[in-house]
Design goal:
Blueprint lengths: L4 H16 L4 H14 L7 H10 L1
């Protein structure tokens, strides 16, 4: 078992989210879809990266 505190924090957060979604993959998908919409400005798309690399 890995004793890395950072990994443990990530695993704990994922478990908490899973429990909040009542262990339902459908609710988990809806949760992440909602977050993606709310924070779409933070998402980097591969097409953007390729375009910016071509401009350089």
């Amino acid at each position: 078992m890995n004793n890395d505190p950072t990994l443990q924090e990530i695993w704990d957060a994922r478990q908490k989210i899973w429990e909040e979604c009542e262990s339902s993959s459908e609710k988990l998908f809806e949760y992440y879809s909602r977050l993606e919409k709310e924070h779409s400005y933070k998402i980097v798309r591969l097409e953007q990266v390729e375009f910016e690399a071509e401009e350089s």
